[in-house]
């Protein structure tokens, strides 16, 4: 096993990508490693003609992935939109791995991101010694993607200031990046495109300008509608992360995941699954990603401090932490849920008692 904590998708799933390349006879857009049909198969899962199993990276509506791949095969950029925890970054990474074999050209957008991190920077020692020159220029992931005709990922685009966001307009519309200091420009090679992710629910969101919005094709990734689908997603990710962390997943994982998903879906939806009791909703999103984090935290606790099995004792602290983001409002919401719902469910007795202890 590699000493690297987390390998890029193109390395972790190299055997699957190689198997798809070996049988891929479809027409490929310029500079693509796989045909659009093979890219969709890589994301959605399946079996090759030689019998190689391709694991599903995204569990959901196939049409959404087809739309995303079809967008990237044009000169129009792709914006994956959705609430936190809907696998936007995961899909973005795997699309890049399958299409160009490199998912590491990524810019993490924050409130502190400036134009130099998007366009290019300067090596100031070289700049002082020789003045503006190609040698003094420091290319960004976007710059390199344009030069080499690959994809660039921009994570959490709306975290970035609106004035910095608009730096992308020239790149997306003209497919070129001016370098006025050198009286030059970088022109995008065929195969270049941008995958951005954004959510519209978190605090600190900067709305995209209408000019920038027009240059993206938006694909909205929803939370799973079906409980079984959500349980399947969480089970798969917990198994993958358990293998990566060398932590064995207990045999009772599926049973406990169902309980966590039940709690999350009821609080998220504002009513019990049978629709008989109306509930207050907490301030957090209680997304699938949060549920995965609860289970992985519990997995670590069960293996290092317990008997290796999942129980309410291992999961409750992480569960309360995921639900109670506001110590006043969310605590009151959870206390009411415990007394009106979980207290009456025999299967959830362990959670009722341990979560009250944590609170």
Structure description:
The protein has 359 residues and is an alpha/beta fold. It has two domains: 9-220, Rossmann fold; 227-358. It contains 17 helices and eleven strands. The chain has helices spanning 9-12, 14-23, 36-44, 62-72, 88-100, 115-118, 124-130, 141-148, 162-165, 168-174, 210-213, 227-244, 253-269, 288-305, 312-323, 329-340, 349-358, and strands at 46-47, 53-54, 77-81, 106-108, 120-122, 137-139, 151-155, 176-179, 184-187, 193-198, 216-220. Strands 4-7-10-3-11 form a five-stranded parallel sheet. Strand 1 and strand 2 form a beta hairpin. Helix 12 (227-244) crosses helix 14 and helix 14 (288-305) packs antiparallel against helix 15 (312-323). The chain is globular, with a radius of gyration of 23 Å. The relative contact order is 0.10. The model has no long low-confidence stretch (mean pLDDT 93).
Name the poorly predicted regions: none
**CATH H level of the largest domain: which superfamily?**
P-loop containing nucleotide triphosphate hydrolases
The assigned CATH architecture of the largest domain is: 3-Layer(aba) Sandwich
Overall strand count: 11
Secondary-structure element string: HHHEEHEHEHEHEHEHHEEEHEHHHHHH
The number of helices is 17
Q: What would you call the structural class?
A: alpha/beta
Q: What is the overall shape?
A: globular
Spatial ordering of strands, largest sheet: 4-7-10-3-11
Largest sheet: 5 strands, parallel
Distance between the termini: 40 Å
- Number of separate domains: 2
The top level CATH class name of the largest domain: Alpha Beta
Helix content: 40-55%
**Overall residue-averaged pLDDT value:** 93
CATH topology of the largest domain: Rossmann fold
Strand content: 5-15%
